[in-house]
Hints:
The protein is built from 2 helices and 6 strands, in the order αββββαββ. The protein is of the alpha+beta class and 101 residues long. It has one domain (28-100): Gyrase A, domain 2, CATH 3.30.1360.40. The strands form 2 sheets. The chain has a 4-stranded antiparallel β-sheet with strand order 3-4-6-5, with helices on one face. The longest helix is centred in the first third of the chain and has 23 residues, at 2-24.
Amino acid sequence: MDEVLELAKEGMEEAIDRLRKSLTKVRTGRANPAMLDGVRVDNYGSMMPLNQVSTVSVADARLLVVKPWDRNMVGPIEKAINAQNLGLNPQSDGTVIRLAI
Length: 101
């Protein structure tokens, strides 16, 4: 009986963790860097999280700014954001990517 309760408890904790992660991606009209947590970028042959190849910041209430550490990563980052189907349209000037919410 204790085994069943322990398995149920673990399953419920996993479900709560997944819900928390999903809720951080909800678009509320306000820019939140956590919206891009699931974005993985092709970095010279290996897939890496966006926050490991760039800095994501909030410029104002409705604008996220992604500044890659390497200028050559602008294109792959744009492709990765588009591939996530977040409903965001990345616009870049060659050094910085802007995402209007």
